[in-house]
Design a protein that fits this description.
6-stranded parallel sheet; 22 helices; 40% helix; single chain; alpha/beta
């Protein structure tokens, strides 16, 4: 800091991020955002540089999903921002609190065809919750603080802030008004008492009530409140999206994730949905997850998110954690009235898992992908605490089905209805950066892995090792299935890849890699891969699998009408 209190704009931004609770910055440098990279170095903000801007935003999203706290990414102007757009689209659709700070053409060069000049605010408008530009160096701290607040307040989402190169690289004393500025953090809205009473009336008179916890419950930090509510009321719960692990899958009242808990939800006479909207992920509030005659209670912090494709019988406007606290306080019924129903929901989830098991044990040509997911899931359980990440088309279904979640933020997969692939490795690296002492396992399809495999280099450079298991079926399996179903067995153009050696990618960055072709080779390969990560190296176990095997859920996806 100069004698007059003036500071470099990049330092002002980095310190404002730190002051707002941002613990790590993911990004790729360029001429327009270099001042922020220097500011992070000088200001002591942890910086993880990536190989692609899209993956920088994915990593910020992964950090937020792993921790429940907002994260930040930075990209340069023009093509740097354009490369990041899929990341913004995904994180915003998933409702994840991510701040993206982009460089921008200097004010003096606007409209002259300058290098990397682009209408960036126009480009990000449909992909962000909030967007702004800062045109004065002294206002950078306030602008950054506002971006973080907007990302995490209310319903979370992407907050985009662009700062022109000359502003970010300028020098000024921070603006210091003589009155208090900023926001009151931690304020939580509760529904009106009459709505609480209506919800209690529905739940207490239900024979088969079920709670479905979604991402809004996770970002509300509602884990303790959810457990307290479930244990006070005896109502069973299933979880979806990033809410996996908000209540332990092994909790007596938990039916696990929606892949297995969906049977209980479909059988319920009253369903209470916490922090999820009725989009394609919930089949628009209809069958097979929700029955037409079912009573629905929906809780959301944003009133405009209530209802739509499925109108709730009771809509509760409030923070999920605060709402659960209010419902628990208002409950006067016994805690054991639903014990037989809870046992039925657990039995139904167990039947679903057993059905997956039977499919895995069928004869296949090469390693059966479901069997592989089960083996990797069991191996991860043996080395808990850990994080399990699933990515791909069909592979994500197998990964979710055979992995468990015991804590929030430890079972990660695509949480939005965007269907974005390639998030796996960025999420895994981010999870390892958030919990550096715990192993991270990524179960991914070969197509999805190829979209972000270059970030093995980021994993190696920053010593954030992960175990990657590639389901190598030589193609885009779900796409190939649809092509053949619609156009005949010969129609697979564009869906075929090759027998590429993904394990060699790990070796190319100094990591550990090996190709596996037989089931009895899988467990020893996982042991060696995990040992290598203990020495700081990323590991890839490339498993050749049967290309003809497809999960039942993926086979029937078209019939659900979600695309």
């Amino acid at each position: 800091m100069s004698p007059h209190g003036a500071e470099f704009g990049g330092v002002l931004a980095a310190r404002a991020l730190l002051a707002s609770g941002i613990e790590a910055l993911f990004g790729l440098p360029g001429g327009h955002n270099l001042p922020l990279f220097e500011g992070a170095r000088v200001g002591g903000l942890r910086l993880i540089d990536t190989r692609h801007e899209e993956n920088a935003v994915f990593m910020a999203e992964g950090w937020a999903l792993a921790t429940g706290r907002p994260a930040a990414a930075t990209v340069t102007a023009g093509p740097g921002l354009a490369n990041a757009l899929p990341g913004l689209a995904e994180a915003n659709a998933a409702g994840v609190p991510v701040v993206v700070i982009a460089g921008r053409t200097s004010i003096a060069q606007r409209g002259r065809g300058a290098v990397q000049d682009l209408d960036q605010l126009g480009a990000v408008t449909p992909l962000t919750k909030w967007r702004a530009e800062c045109l004065q160096t002294e206002r950078i701290p306030g602008a950054v603080a506002e971006a973080v607040h907007q990302a995490r307040s209310g319903a979370p989402g992407v907050a985009y802030l662009e700062i022109p190169q000359d502003v970010l690289g300028g020098t000024a004393a921070p603006a210091d008004p003589s009155w208090p500025t900023g926001h009151t953090e931690g304020a939580r809205a509760r529904p009106v008492q009459g709505d609480i009473e209506r919800a209690i009336d529905l739940l207490s008179n239900a024979e088969r009530p079920v709670v479905l916890a979604g991402s809004g419950a996770f970002f509300s930090g509602a884990g303790g409140a959810l457990r307290a509510f479930v244990e006070r009321t005896g109502i069973p719960v299933t979880t979806t999206s990033v809410a996996r692990g908000l209540i332990d899958d092994d909790h007596p009242s938990c039916a696990g994730g929606l892949v297995h808990g969906g049977i209980a939800l479909a059988s319920a006479d009253v369903a209470m949905v916490l922090g999820s909207r009725f989009n394609a992920n919930l089949v628009y509030g209809g069958p097979p997850l929700f029955s037409p005659g079912q009573k629905v209670i929906q809780v959301d912090v944003r009133p405009e998110h209530l209802g739509g494709l499925r109108r709730p019988d009771v809509g509760l406007v409030g923070d999920v954690r605060a709402t659960l606290d209010a419902l628990t306080e208002a409950w006067t019924g016994p805690a054991d009235a639903h014990l037989p129903w809870v046992e039925q929901t657990r039995a139904a989830a167990a039947m679903s898992l057993e059905s997956c098991d039977r499919r895995c044990d069928r004869t296949s040509m090469g390693v059966q992908p479901g069997w592989l997911a089960r083996e990797v899931g069991r191996f991860a359980e043996e080395h808990a605490p850990c994080t399990f990440v699933s990515d791909g088309g069909d592979s994500v279904v197998w990964g979710i089905a055979f992995s468990k979640a015991h804590r929030p933020g430890t079972n990660l997969f695509i949480g939005s209805a965007m269907g974005t692939l390639g998030i796996g490795l960025p999420f895994a690296v981010a999870a390892r950066s958030a919990r550096p002492d715990e192993p991270v396992f990524l179960f991914t399809g070969d197509g999805a892995f190829g979209l972000s495999a270059i970030e093995l280099h980021t994993s190696a450079r920053h010593q954030l090792p992960v175990v990657v298991v590639v389901v190598n079926n030589g193609g885009w399996g779900d796409v190939r299935h649809e092509q053949r179903m619609w156009y005949g067995d010969e129609a697979d153009q564009g869906a075929l890849l090759s027998g590429m050696r993904y394990d060699l990618l790990a070796e190319s960055v100094g990591g550990h890699g090996e190709r596996v072709a037989e089931p009895d080779q899988v467990r020893p390969a996982l042991e060696r891969a995990l040992k290598a990560t203990g020495q700081g190296s990323p590991s890839v176990v490339d498993v050749t699998t049967d290309p003809e095997v497809m999960s039942d859920l993926m086979k029937n996806l078209g019939a659900l009408g979600v695309m």
